[in-house]
Design goal:
Helix content is 71%, strand content 1%. The protein is mostly helical. It has three domains: 100 residues, Alpha Horseshoe (Serine Threonine Protein Phosphatase 5, Tetratricopeptide repeat), CATH 1.25.40; 82 residues, no CATH class; 92 residues, Alpha Horseshoe (Serine Threonine Protein Phosphatase 5, Tetratricopeptide repeat).
Length: 282
């Protein structure tokens, strides 16, 4: 009885998938006997339902059996494992999709390696290869321009000179196209941090100021502005920045991501520590 209880839903889905071909073919306006296996796989993909459910995975498995080189289905099968933190299983499915169609999925692997795995070396290699595959411009992957991602990877590897070149390229592309207001949401903050690592406090402060012109309540921006001011020995101004940072942290104005810690993320306690060091500065 236990086995029947486990496998009955799969049997039901299997019968539904294969028993309704005629109805689906009529819906799509084609005769069933003229459909290729890959066309039928596309129809199953369209009906897969909610991501990560047993029925969805079954539909994807059925689509792949019909069309083994259906890259989109291989990629989709892996996504729930990525969200659950099972990166090995996710990567196995995604790698298969990339073998079939690298131009469609290589950027996704690069982005996820950088964002979720912090595999900056592997991600950078993928970003570079994808950059060679496509002439599209701008090349936006996830939340950022590809060159912002490459800058973050180089920074993660402590290659700050190389990181700065990519950050400059990303910001230049956006600025030349539409003006600085179209630069990525946190690109100035990221480049400012790269400049901080290079001890270019003046340049870093300029970038943090630009970031705060675009997002004037960003607690993280005031924190890093304070660090750049400290680097210039401007302790009174730095103290004001840390106070603003604490105020906006307290009111929830900070960078966040539902899945991972964002690059150069700081917290209320970081601002409080820096402010405590300046308590006797008037």
């Amino acid at each position: 009885m236990e086995k029947l209880r486990i496998y009955f839903p799969s049997i039901f889905i299997f019968l539904s998938c294969h028993g309704n071909n005629a109805a689906r073919s009529k819906q799509f306006g084609v005769k069933e006997d003229t459909l290729s296996n890959c066309a039928k796989a596309e129809m199953l993909f369209a009906e897969k339902g909610d991501q990560g459910t047993n029925s969805s995975q079954f539909y994807l498995d059925s689509a792949i059996r019909l069309c083994p080189n259906f890259a989109k289905a291989w990629r989709e099968k892996g996504v729930p494992f990525l969200k659950r933190g099972d990166y090995a299983t996710w990567l196995a499915y995604l790698n298969r999709a990339i073998e079939i169609s690298p131009i469609d999925f290589l950027d996704i692997r690069a982005w996820c390696k950088a964002k979720f795995l912090h595999d900056y070396k592997g991600a950078l290699e993928d970003f570079k290869n994808f950059d060679l595959l496509t002439t599209d411009t701008p090349k936006v992957i996830g939340d950022y321009n590809i060159y912002t991602w490459m800058a973050l990877c180089e920074a993660g590897l402590n290659h700050h000179e190389a990181a700065l070149k990519y950050a400059n390229k990303s910001i230049a592309i956006s600025s030349e196209e539409h003006g600085e207001e179209w630069v990525g949401m946190f690109d100035f903050l990221y480049r400012g941090n790269i400049k901080l690592a290079l001890k270019d406090y003046k340049g870093a402060l300029e970038d943090f100021n630009k970031q705060l012109r675009n997002s004037d309540k960003l607690a993280d921006g005031y924190y890093y502005q304070g660090l750049a001011l400290l680097g210039q020995k401007k302790k009174k101004d730095a103290k004001k920045s840390f106070k603003k940072s604490i105020y906006y942290f307290t009111n929830g104005y900070t960078m966040s991501d539902p899945y991972v810690e964002m690059p150069f993320k700081v917290y209320l306690s970081d601002a409080e520590i820096e402010l405590s060091k300046l308590q006797f500065i008037d």
